[in-house]
Amino acid sequence: MLPLVYTNPVATFLFMVACLIWLMPEMIGMFRQIAKVSRKAVVSQDGGSLVVLVGLQWVGIALNFLLAWFFPFATISIHRTILFSLGIIFILLGVGLRWFSIWTLGRYFTRDIAVSMDQQVVQNGPYRFIRHPAYSGTFLTMLGVGLAMTNWASLISLLFCVFLGHLYRVRIEEETLIQNIGQPYIDYMRRTKRFIPLVF
C-alpha cells in the first residue's frame, strides 16, 4: 500500500506545503548565516560536520521516499490519515521550535561550528531545558516527514540517518564549546540533556 502522499492529491498538496515551510527558510539561512560572512571575530572549528550532517539528512530523506515506494509491505496500515495528519503537525512544530531556538541564540547562531571571542552560554528560552533545541526541532520535523509517509522502513531509515548525523555534529560542537568557554559550559552540560528534556 502506497502512502497517501503518493495517492491522494490533497495529502500531496498539504505535504508539499509543509515541506516548503521547512525547506525555504533553511535554504535562505544556509546562504545568509554561514559564520565566515555573518559574524566578525569568530573561530570556525566545524571539522566537516556540516557536510556530514546535511549529507546524512538528505540520504535519509531520499531513503524515506524510495523505501515507501519499493517496500509497500512495510506500510503502517492502521490510522493512516491520523498518522499523516500528525506528521504534518510535527513538521510545522519542528520548524517552529528550530527557528525559535535560532532566534533565541541570536548572533551566536551559525551554520558551521564557530565560536565568537565573547561567546556566552545561552540559557534562556528552550536552552533552559536542552542544549540543542534547534536540532530537536529538526528531529521533530523529520519525525513528521517519516510519519506522513506511513511506512516503517521509511520512518526508521530517515530517523537513523538524521540521528547519526546529529550525533557526530553535536560531539564536535560540544568539544568546541568546552575548549572555548570552559567551566561555564561544562556546568551547563551537567544541568541539561542534549535533545529531550530529562531524557536524552
Describe what this molecule looks like in 3D.
The chain is mostly helical. The protein has a single domain, classed as Four Helix Bundle (Hemerythrin (Met), subunit A) (Up-down Bundle). The protein has helices at residues 4-7, 9-32, 35-38, 49-70, 80-105, 133-148, 152-181, 183-191; strands spanning 42-44, 114-116. The chain has a two-stranded antiparallel sheet with strand order 1-2. Helix 4 packs antiparallel against helix 7 and helix 6 (133-148) packs antiparallel against helix 7 (152-181). The protein is elongated and about 55 Å long.
Features:
Four Helix Bundle (Hemerythrin (Met), subunit A); elongated; 200 residues; mainly alpha
Secondary-structure map with pairings?
Layout: H1 4-7, H2 9-32, H3 35-38, E1 42-44, H4 49-70, H5 80-105, E2 114-116, H6 133-148, H7 152-181, H8 183-191
Antiparallel strand pairs: 1-2
| Overall shape | elongated
CATH architecture: Up-down Bundle
Strand content: under 5%
Within the CATH hierarchy, at the fold level, what is the topology? Answer: Four Helix Bundle (Hemerythrin (Met), subunit A)
Structural class: mainly alpha
Low-pLDDT segments:
35-41
- The CATH class is identified as Mainly Alpha
How many strand segments? Answer: 2
Return the string of H and E elements: HHHEHHEHHH
Instruction: Give me the side-by-side strand order of the main sheet.
Output: 1-2
Tally of individual helices: 8
Largest sheet: 2 strands, antiparallel
Query: In whole angstroms, how far apart are the ends?
Result: 34 Å
Q: What is the averaged pLDDT score?
A: 92
